[in-house]
Amino acid sequence: MAIKNVKTVKTAYKLLDHHLEEILSLSGSVVMSSAEAWDKYIWTRKYFINKPKEGYFIWIKEQPDCSLLSCIALDKPGTKQELNNLIVIEAGLYVDLTGTCESTGFLSELKLANKRHHQSRGKLVLRKGSSLYYQHLHNWDKQDQVSTDYQFFLEEGASLEYTYKIETAAASMNLLAQMHLAKGARSDLKILADCQQTNINLTDIAYLEGAGANAISTLRIVGRKGAQVQARSKIIAQAAAKGHLDCAALMLDKKAKLGLIPELMVENPDAQLTHEAFIGKLSAEQILYLRSRGLTAKEAEDLILRGFLSE
After folding, report:
1. CA atoms of 291 and 51, how far apart (whole Å)
2. In the structure, what pLDDT confidence band is assigned to residue 3 with cuts at 50, 70 and 90?
3. Strand partners, 30
4. Which of 99, 142, 182, 250 has a C-alpha 20 to 30 A away from that of 128?
5. Is 133:98 a contact under the CB 8 Å cutoff?
6. 100 and 128 in contact (C-beta within 8 Å)?
């Protein structure tokens, strides 16, 4: 787990199935359940819409001196999580956050009728001039069902670096990530997915709403045996802004099915949007070169894939 520019890491929120195991008391910040936030802070209701059943509220009001960690895990068969999260970062602050979502126990064949579900909705609000570095790491059992829907609201001059990494995929995964960028805001989204025996739908959309906004979206997908992946990446320029899509996928199995759909939409004549997309196989030349340096074929392949899926 990479941590950027900080000395310590503190767990802000830890949930196992529906049991809250840990919550952080941190000076200059508020951490509580989403349901408590709904009751205590009336202004949060415009983000939640309905009172949440579970999930966390993190409000960063002063500069933290540590990186924050949230841990969400599935364990018991039949668990159905319905998380509704809200993170608010006040003006001018820098926050380093890592979120882990995973299975702690694996389902046996006898328990497949009681599949586990992880459904997570979240809104992240970055006030004027604030910055967020956010890693979102996923490790699931091959029988789990996962759905995530996150919206990011970047006020003037705010900056977001967001990496969504699927290290072990669930049976089915649906991801929606939407970024709303005001004047001078910047987002750098990376989706890194190692896919095997899974059906995945990925959609990311950047709305360039303010002049000088800049969005970069990078997709890196590896399709192994049994992988079916459909990925759509889109930028909509509503102002004089810039954006770039970089989509690439590698097929490691002839029966994998991978789809990449980059979309650019311009609503302002002074906007500039670009894209590049690629689906192919591992380079035989790269593998031969690495083997000539003493690596086995498997070691060469693993090295190339680590580089391909790295941040």
Report:
1. 57
2. very low
3. 59
4. 99
5. no
6. no
Chain position carrying tokens 């949230």? 70
Distance CA 174, CA 157 (A): 30
pLDDT exceeds 60 at position 104 = yes
Q: Note whether residue 123 is domain-resident.
A: yes
Domain assignment of residue 294, given as a range: 283-311
- Looking at the structure of the chain, the number of domains it has is 2
What's the full length of the chain, in residues?
311
- Tell me the β-bridge partners of 122: 85, 150
DSSP letter, residue 37: H
CB 4 within 8 A of CB 133: yes
pLDDT over 90 at 302, yes or no: no
Contact 145, 120 (CB under 8 A): no
Yes or no: say if 119 and 80 are a contact pair by the CB < 8 Å rule: yes
- Average pLDDT across the chain, whole number: 93
Q: Which range has the top average pLDDT, 8-12, 17-21, 160-164?
A: 160-164
Start-to-end Cα distance in the chain: 12
Torsion angle of the four alpha carbons 292, 306, 310, 60, in this order, in degrees rounded to the nearest 10: -150
- The single-letter DSSP state of residue 54 is B
Is 1 contained in some domain? Answer: no
